[in-house]
Amino acid sequence: MKRHFANAIGLLIVALTVAGCAQYQPSQGWVTLIDGNTGMDNWNLTGGGNWRAADGAIQADSSTTKGASVLVSKKSFKDFELYTEFWAADDTNSGVYIRAMNPTNVSTSTGAYEVQIWDKNPNPAYSTGSLVNVAAVNPIYKAGGRWNTYEIYAKGAGITVKLNGVVTVSAQDSKSPEGRIGLQYNGGPIKFRKLLVREL
After folding, report:
1. Fewer CB atoms near the end CB (10 Å): N or C, the chain?
2. What contacts 136, CB < 8 A, 6 or more positions away?
3. Global pTM?
């Protein structure tokens, strides 16, 4: 009896794991913008970052110009869920922008929201897991040196961020109701091996 119960629990765990992974499949309404080395054609480049497809990810680790370089989605999004897998070094300064209204000048000062990837931000309140200048993180989270996941939910004025399955911030802010997605390089290596979006 115990053996049958253990087998049933094991099968349930496998089923739930498969179901959890399946939620990010394009067949379930998800649109893939990055999948390993593919997806560069879904983005426009601003700045001088050396964004490229290599080693199973879209990545950048240097720039020919000062300031941030951003990959900007060709499509605009309003209400959506976003899932991405990223790798950053301990000193990387990066982020995922959402609802960027000005695709040629993507920053928080032009109305975009930035989900921060920066473990060593001099202002720890807006380090990794925060929504820059909107929602501070507490406690402090670290992402450097390993693969991580972000899940971002944006509907109306509500924005919620999960890092590796843990809610880091949840905020209400209506300054930017719609816009592009942006991937920032602003120093230190950054890699994105998966990015999917589902409109709500």
Report:
1. N
2. 125, 126, 130, 169
3. 0.86
- Of 171, 52, 144, give the one whose Cα is nearest residue 89: 144
Q: How far is residue 126's CA from residue 153's CA, in Å, rounded to a whole number? A: 19
93-136 pLDDT, tens digit per residue, is 999 999 999 999 999 999 999 999 999 999 999 999 999 999 99
The pLDDT of residue 54 is above 90 = yes
What pLDDT was estimated at residue 26? 53
All residues at 6 or more sequence positions from 21 whose CB lies less than 8 Å from its CB, including other chains? none
Which residue in the block uniquely carries the two structure tokens 């843990």? 166
30-199: which CATH architecture? Sandwich (2.60)
| Encoded tokens for 52 | 């490229």
pLDDT tier, 152 (very low <50, low <70, confident <90, very high otherwise): very high
Average pLDDT over residues 79-84: 98
Count of alpha carbons within 13 angstroms of residue 59, beta-carbon side: 19
Beta bridge partners of 88: 144, 190
Q: 20 falls in which pLDDT band (50, 70, 90)?
A: very low
* Residue-by-residue DSSP string for 70-137: EEEEEEEESSEEEEEEEEE-TT--EEEEEEES-TTS-SGGGT-EEEEE-TT-SSGGGSTT-BTTTB--
